[in-house]
Amino acid sequence: MLLQKLFCGLVLVSICAVHECFVSAQTSAVGDPGMRRDGLRVAIEAWNQCNEVGEEAPNMGSPRCADCFDLYNSTSPIRLVHRVTERDNKLGISNATSRGRRGPLDVNQYAAWKQIYLGTKCQVQGKPKPWQFWMIMLKSGNMDTLAAICPNNGRKAYPFKSDSVFPCFGKGCMNMPLIYHDYTTVYEDHGSKKLRGSFYGTWDLDNAASVTKELITQNDSSYYEVIWEKEVGKRSWEFHHILKTSLKYPWLMLYLRADAATGFSGGYHYQTRGIMKTIPKSPKFTVKFTLEIKRGGGPGSQFYLMDIGSCWKNNGQPCNGDVTTDVTRYSEMIINPSIDSWCKLTSLQSCPPYHTLPNGTRIHRSDEENFPYEAYHVYCTPGNAQHPEEPHNFCDPYSNPQPQEILQILPHPVWREYGYPTKKGEGWIGDPKTWELDVGKLSQALYFYQDPGTAPADRYWSSIDLGTEIFRSDNQVAEWTLKKKETLVPSPLFHPYDQMPFEMESKGVGVQNGGKQTAILIA
Questions:
Q1: Cis before residue 372, ω within 30 degrees of 0?
Q2: Quick one: signal sequence residues (predicted)?
Q3: pLDDT for 501-523, tens place per residue?
């Protein structure tokens, strides 16, 4: 009997040990774990205020470009084979009459098609699914309210007189930027072989003949630049970012995104392509990276240590491309110490209805003694929410192609358990850090609106971004470097795409067109 009990005990302990190992094992969700792959895959996209194109910049083509190459190190000299040509990158709505598309496309749908096309050129066969590229995202907050280009919560908008919220210098203020490209090359540096490439440009179209780094020092000239560098066979890629605003373009954004390799990504209502072969799901995923901020972008720079984006309807169901009922959900940690909390006892409409402690305890925003007001910058509820708790603020109805919900948080001790900064200035200028953030656990605890009585949404995060949004501040410069970015998910629990709610079609691409779908075939 004693031996039987001992045997049973050993079996039980063994099962528990195996189970513990099973649930704690992690694997990378991205195709380029830790940014260490020599054969880089990187792309760039540009959006207007409502995450569309509107009109292509002169001689630039559609604002989707890529730098994807394979490196052959066994030859001397080292050989780079680029998968995307200059002709590919210059494709635009006016010069691409035949690339396997079927049905008429407008300039916005064409940009979506081009992203898929570039994805086919860059795609790497990975497990559990193929992946394409890291994505550099540019966006301008300018909006011509008299042109009524941006929809109102996914519905037709009507002209109205501009106010101080939306900057616009007049007709054409929502233009796409000029995008210039230095293809990645290999060079010698003190006996080492190194790789380097870049995208750079400006929103000021009259500067087309003189787009150089000198624009950073010139007032009233916008500028952006992303340079990537790596030593062959060693370490991580390092991405060096610069963003400058101007009087004409005072509201600009620059992020490096890890997007889903298929389905929707945050804020994008077309099929997408990206680096994430597995979409992370709350509460079990971790994000790691090394960040050094050199210049902050001024007091209006909402520098996002972490910006995650997803999409689900107010009834908890996954998004399906209907821009009137889909809702983009964002959570953003702002680490600029100049950004203060708008969430206060005297301004409850700027606070989420409750804060959830790690043990699951909820604290209502009216609880003056226990609610952490200083942990929140601002919260706004989706514009199509039918039962928001009073008082409330609806989110800006124009800066997304569909309704959106935004929850912005600030460094505070309540985030300590998740690895996030706990005090102002942590990780800011002069304090470079390697972060390991329990984004999954935090994103599960954060408040997001749902209609009463509906089952909680499965929170899949199809975009994990880092960068800054310089908000209505002219002639400000932000500069930072990022490397070793990684997203880890549980090994036995990752969710293949064929089970994901974000998948729209298995063949071709579905693009929404006034509530209908236009099929686009890839040649």
A1: no
A2: 1-25
A3: 443 333 333 343 333 332 222 22
Assign 3-class secondary structure to 293-321.
EEEECCCCEEEEEEEEEEEECCCCCECCC
The DSSP output letter for 281 is B
In the block, which residue shows the tokens 């699914």? Answer: 129
CA distance 58 to 52: 17
* Tens of pLDDT, residues 41-55: 999 999 999 999 999
Q: Can you read off the two tokens belonging to residue 250?
A: 């005072």
Q: In the structure encoding, which two tokens stand for residue 381, read together?
A: 């509820």
Query: How distant, in Å, are the alpha carbons of 140, 205, 491 from that of 33?
Result: 30, 37, 14
Instruction: Characterize the bridge pairing of strands 41-47 and 134-140.
Output: parallel
Q: In whole angstroms, what separates CA 446 from the centre of its chain?
A: 18
Cis amide leading into 280 (omega within 30): no
Cβ neighbors of 457 (< 8 A, separation 6 or more) are 312, 313, 316, 317, 318, 448, 450
Least Cα distance to 319 among 369, 378, 270 occurs for 270
Q: How far apart are CA 208 and CA 437, in angstroms?
A: 41
Contact 254, 243 (CB under 8 A): yes
In order of 368, 392, 393, the CA distances from 348 in angstroms are 11, 8, 9
Name residue 514's beta-bridge partners: none
Give the CA dihedral 158, 160, 166, 172, nearest 10 degrees. Answer: 70
SS3 56: coil
| Residue 22 main-chain phi, psi, to 5 deg | -60, -45
Give 182-204 as a DSSP string: EEEEEEEETTEEEEEEEEEEES-
DSSP designation for 212: S
Integer angstrom CA distances of residue 83 from 71, 95, 184, 286: 11, 20, 12, 31
Sequential DSSP letters for 409-460: E---GGGGGGT---STTTTSTT--EEEEE-HHHHHHHS-----TTPPPPP-B
Instruction: Determine the residue type at 296.
Output: G
**Cα–Cα–Cα angle for 224, 258, 32, nearest 5°?**
105
Q: What is the residue-wise DSSP string for 12-47? A: HHHHHHHHHHHHH-EEESBSSGGG--SS-EEEEEEE
The verdict on pTM exceeding 0.85 is yes
State pLDDT tens for residues 397-421. Answer: 999 999 999 999 999 999 999 999 9
* Residue 7 parent element (H or E): helix 2-24
The span from the CA of 458 to the CA of 450, in Å, is 12
Token digits for 65?
């470009």
CA 425, 431, 432, 434 torsion-angle sign: negative
Coil, strand, or helix at residue 246?
A: coil
